[in-house]
Amino acid sequence: MGVDPDELRQSLLSRVMQTSKGGLKGTVYMVPLKAYEANNARDALAKAVYSKLFDLIVRRINQSIPFSSSSHYIGVLDIAGFEYFQVNSFEQFCINYCNEKLQQFFNERILKEEQALYEREGLSVKKIEYVDNQDCIDLLEGKGTGIFDLLDEESKLPRSSHTHFTSVLHSTHPRHFRLAVPRKSKLRDHREITDDQGFLIRHFAGAVCYETAKFVEKNNDALHASLEGLVQETQNSFLRALFDEK
Predict the structure, then answer these.
(1) Which residues form the Myosin motor domain (predicted)?
(2) How many angstroms separate the CA atoms of 13 and 161, rounded?
(3) Which of 36-40, 203-207, 237-241 has the highest mean pLDDT?
(4) Hey, which end of the chain has fewer CB within 10 Å, N or C?
C-alpha cells in the first residue's frame, strides 16, 4: 500500500479526536478503538479501496468504448435474484431492494407505459392488472424516513445500536402496509424474533423477515480521519490517485 506499517497499525487501532469546547479546545487525542471498532475500520478501508478501484475500472471501460450519445445499445444486467433465507441480514436486504427497483422499472416500462401507448393509438387490448410497488420503494429509499436513511442516521450516533434502529423504524412507520414486526411472519422461527431485533417487509415477490443484529455494523463503512489521511499520503501513486479523484 505504500504506507508505513506502524502508522497503518496505529490508524487501524486508534482514531484522532479533537476537542471543540473548554480551555483545552483544539487539543488532539489518540483514542484507542475497541476490537469490533478496529475490525470495522479494517473492513471500511478494504471496502473503500475496492469501491474506488471498481469505479475506476468502469470509467476506463466506458472511455475505451467509442460511441456517440445517440447510439442505440442493448444492456445486459445480471444481479442476484430475490433472496429469502432462514436468516436474512443486510446483504439480503440490499439484494432484495435491487430487485424491487428492477420490478418497478418493469412495471413502468413494460406495463404502464406500453398500455398507455395502446390507449393513445386506439388499440383494443385487454388491460393487464399489476401491483404497483412504489409504496415499497418509498419505504426503503424515501428521504428522511426511508429505511436506508434511518439506518444512516443510526450509524452516525455515538452509541448506535441495531435495537434502537429497529425500534425507530417501527415507530416511524407504525401502520405501513409493507412493514410489519417479525411476529407477523408465517415461519415460527421468525415469529420468535422480538420487535426490536428485526422487521418484516412485504416485497413484490413475498414477505421477508430481516434480522437487524449486524445492520448498523455492515452499513458503517466510513473511513475515520486517521485512515483517510494515511491513504491520501501514501507513497503508492496509483492508490493516492484513487483517493484524490472526486
Answers:
(1) 1-246
(2) 21
(3) 203-207
(4) C
> How many other C-beta atoms are found inside a 10 Å radius of the C-beta of residue 140?
22
Residue appearing with cell numbers 406500453: 114
User: What is the reported pLDDT for 36?
Assistant: 79
Say if residues 49 and 79 touch (Cβ distance below 8 Å): no
Contact 33, 41 (CB under 8 A): yes
Task: Quote the CA–CA distance of 66 and 181 in Å, as a whole number.
Answer: 51
DSSP per position, 70-108: T---------------SS--HHHHHHHHHHHHHHHHHII
Cell 506502524, located at residue: 6
- Structure-derived torsion over alpha carbons of residues 49, 54, 57, 59, reported in degrees to the nearest 10: -110
Strand pairing class (14-18; 28-32): antiparallel
Contact of 162 with 150, CB cutoff 8 Å: no
Domains and CATH numbers, the chain: 5-66+223-244 (1.20.120.720), 90-213 (1.20.58.530)
The Cα 142–Cα 149 span in angstroms is 8
Pairwise CA distance, residues 168 & 141, whole Å: 16
Partner residues linked to 199 by β-bridges: 210
Whose grid coordinates read 471498481? 54
Sign of CA dihedral 166, 169, 170, 171: positive
The string of pLDDT tens digits covering residues 160-199 is 899 999 999 999 999 999 999 998 888 777 888 999 999 9
